[in-house]
Amino acid sequence: MSLSRFFAVYVTPPSVFVAVLIGGGYGTGREIVEFFSRHGFVSGSIGLITSFFLFFLVLGATFDVARRLQAYEYASFFKQLIGSVWWLYEVLYVLLAMLVLGVLSAAAGETMLQEFGLPLNWGYWLMLVLLTALLLVGRTFLQRVLTFWSAMMFIVFGVYLFFIFDQLGGAARMSVDSGLALAGISSGALYVMYNVAIAPVLLFSMRAFETRVESWTAAGITAFALVVPAFIFHWGFTASDPLVLDQAVPMYWMIEQFAPSIFKTIFVVLLLGTLLQTGSGLIHGFIERVEQALADTGQRSLNRPARIGITIGALTISWLLAQFGLIKLIGAGYSAMGIGFALVYIIPLLLRYFILRNLVRD
């Protein structure tokens, strides 16, 4: 395997998925608190282990089914997966995209407020300008940006771990009861159900897969890369003051407490870039869907004004959602969406995958 193909198979797809899925509540730490850390260290860790295996299972099946069907855009993928009711995914996806973009705008606003004392709505304007610029440069450049930023994120996460471990000495609140352990498992499953729902929108990054082994290996790399940073954050939150659980941006609070001020500035830049990555991945996936629909009817691709219009419309709706606040959006909205995606995407996918595996050998 050539170096370029190695990157196309084992580096680019995981990097794109990690870059998009880690944004929003993950990058702020709010999702980790909501789904794992509030249950305690042991229960939350059980939830994260559950998340790893479910991420691996669903992503592996998604990668391999898309490869077999040669479906790299979500409408064609779901038309072959669930037939005439494929549009149910699109409805859920648009709702989820608006919700996630609302979380991104709220997170950007909270960060701008805490770091620079700027009004919350500045987060919307920042996302609008930067997302529009990034989406106009095309898919190839976007994939390169996402891959590079993923590498930067893991470097900063490693430095963060050093500061937290040095200050907290590895202690974590270990108390747990059986009820909380069960809650950790259910939270881990729910966390996967709504996060992995974005996977079909990112199929554009998976065109290089040629074998089942490549699909599942890339899925394992992706699942590992998603869960390891989450565990680092979770350990830090449960080892710190319980006040962190009530923060809108727990990561920012942790860095203020335990890291040098210069690192806080670096983290703010990283976080805003992470929010931008997630937003660009979501909107680009929707633009790819619109362009496929235009191609199916013999029409031209979207021009720049149309792309800008889609971006402005999506972010305006997200800004309205952001008015509810970051904690409320993550706590209530994501849980409801997770159930819907389990019924429309995850269950049909796993059934289809095992049928294909038994009928087709490669």
Task: Kindly describe this structure.
This protein has 362 residues and is mainly alpha-helical. It has a single domain, classed as Amino acid/polyamine transporter I (Up-down Bundle). 79% of the residues lie in helices and 0% in strands. The two termini are 18 Å apart. The model is unreliable at 174-178 (pLDDT under 50).
Question: Secondary-structure blueprint of this entry?
Answer:
Blueprint lengths: L2 H19 L3 H4 L1 H6 L5 H29 L4 H9 L4 H30 L5 H14 L3 H30 L9 H18 L16 H28 L10 H9 L2 H36 L7 H19 L3 H34 L3
Helix pairs in contact: 1-8, 1-10, 1-12, 4-9, 4-10, 4-14, 6-7, 6-12, 6-13, 6-14, 7-12, 7-13, 8-10, 8-12, 9-14
DSSP summary, beta strand count: 0
Q: DSSP helix count?
A: 14
Dominant shape:
globular
The sequence of SSEs as H and E is HHHHHHHHHHHHHH
| Helix vs. strand class | mainly alpha
The CATH superfamily bears the name: Amino acid/polyamine transporter I
Total separate domains: 1
Level-2 CATH architecture: Up-down Bundle
**What is the C-level CATH assignment?**
Mainly Alpha
Query: In percent terms, what proportion of residues is strand?
Result: under 5%
**Sheet having the most strands:** none
Low-confidence stretches: 174-178
Distance between the termini: 18 Å
Mean pLDDT: 78
